Structure formats: structure tokens, C-alpha cells
């Protein structure tokens, strides 16, 4: 698959990486969605991502963070405030994609988020992300999971 602006799975993976960074920064520094979009558009890294995916997904995730956190709260075994900010950012992306992007197979969503956790999270964080998103998939992708056996 071509890996140009807006095309290719590598570019989409990089868009998710940028979203993790933006969502992390939102949590730590309290920047608004629009501030973060402007800031990330100016980064060199933005040139190598699926820009349309980032520009569509990041604001949707950021602006629905409260609703997504309610879903995440039902998946986790600790208070939301105790989640590592990187893990929360990854779970926001994963839960959003599982709920809103049925064009992306649930296994792809989980795999991408596990890989993000391996790259940016704590040593064992990817296992936690996998378990949480597996639970989320069972509730919001039940038909897809049954269809795949």
C-alpha cells in the first residue's frame, strides 16, 4: 500500500502515535483541542502521518473524552485517576475506534493500541491495554467477534 500523505497503514499508525502524544499533552498541560491541532500541524512528524485520519479522529476523541472515560471506567480495575496518562490516551483511541470506526476490524484496533503501549507505555502496560480493549470489543463488537468465530 502506498505510504503518502493520507495513505498507507504506516501513515495511519503514525497518526495514532501523534494522537497519543496530543492526548497525553492535553492531560498534562491542559491545552485545548484546537491549540493541540495547531501545534501538531506545525510539527515535522505531521508531514509523515495520515493527516486526514489525524484531523478527523483527534478532535472527535478529544471532544468526546468525558463520554469515552465513562466507558473506560467500566473496563478498568482501578480509579480512572490512577491510570497512567499514556495508557489513558491509548485507551481513549482504542475505545473510540471500537465504538465509532466499525470499518476498522476490532483485531486491528486492539493490535495497534497494544503496539502503541509497547512503544510509549510502561513495561507491562501493553498487557493491560490488551485486556481492557478485549473487554470493550466484546461489548461493542459482539457481532463481528461472533462472525469470526
Explain this structure to me?
The chain is mainly alpha-helical and 149 residues long. The protein contains eight helices and no strands. Helix 4 crosses helix 5. The longest helix has 21 residues, at 9-29.
What is the C-level CATH assignment of the largest domain?
Answer: Mainly Alpha
Instruction: Tell me the domain tally.
Output: 2
Distance between the terminal alpha carbons, to the nearest Å? 28 Å
Instruction: Look at the structure and give the mean pLDDT.
Output: 93
Q: Which assembly state applies to the chains in this document?
A: single chain
Q: What is the molecular shape?
A: globular
* SSE string: HHHHHHHH
Number of strands: 0
Tell me the CATH superfamily of the largest domain: NusB-like
Number of helices: 8
Q: From the 3D structure, determine the CATH topology of the largest domain.
A: N-utilizing Substance Protein B Homolog, Chain A
Main sheet properties: none
Radius of gyration: 15 Å
Strand content: under 5%
Describe the structure in brief:
Helices cover 72% and strands 0% of the residues. By secondary structure, the chain is mostly helical.
Helix and strand layout, with pairings?
Elements: H1 9-29, H2 33-41, H3 51-63, H4 65-75, H5 85-100, H6 106-120, H7 125-140, H8 142-147
Helix pairs in contact: 1-2, 1-3, 1-5, 4-5, 5-6, 5-7, 6-7
Task: Offer a few descriptive terms.
8 helices, N-utilizing Substance Protein B Homolog, Chain A, mainly alpha, 149 residues, 2 domains, disordered N terminus, globular
Amino acid at each position: 500500500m502506498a505510504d503518502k500523505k493520507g495513505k498507507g497503514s504506516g501513515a495511519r499508525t503514525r497518526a495514532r502515535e501523534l494522537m497519543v502524544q496530543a492526548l497525553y499533552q492535553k492531560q498534562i498541560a491542559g491545552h485545548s483541542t484546537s491549540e493541540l491541532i495547531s501545534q501538531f500541524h506545525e510539527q515535522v512528524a505531521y508531514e509523515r502521518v495520515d493527516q486526514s485520519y489525524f484531523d478527523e479522529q483527534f478532535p472527535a476523541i478529544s471532544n468526546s473524552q468525558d463520554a469515552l472515560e465513562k466507558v473506560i471506567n467500566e473496563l478498568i480495575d482501578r480509579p480512572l485517576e490512577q491510570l497512567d496518562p499514556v495508557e489513558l490516551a491509548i485507551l481513549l483511541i482504542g475505545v473510540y475506534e471500537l465504538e465509532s470506526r466499525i470499518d476498522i476490524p476490532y483485531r486491528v484496533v486492539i493490535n495497534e493500541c497494544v503496539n502503541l503501549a509497547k512503544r510509549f507505555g510502561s513495561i507491562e502496560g501493553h498487557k493491560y491495554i490488551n485486556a481492557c480493549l478485549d473487554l470493550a470489543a466484546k461489548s461493542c463488537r459482539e457481532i463481528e467477534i461472533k462472525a469470526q468465530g
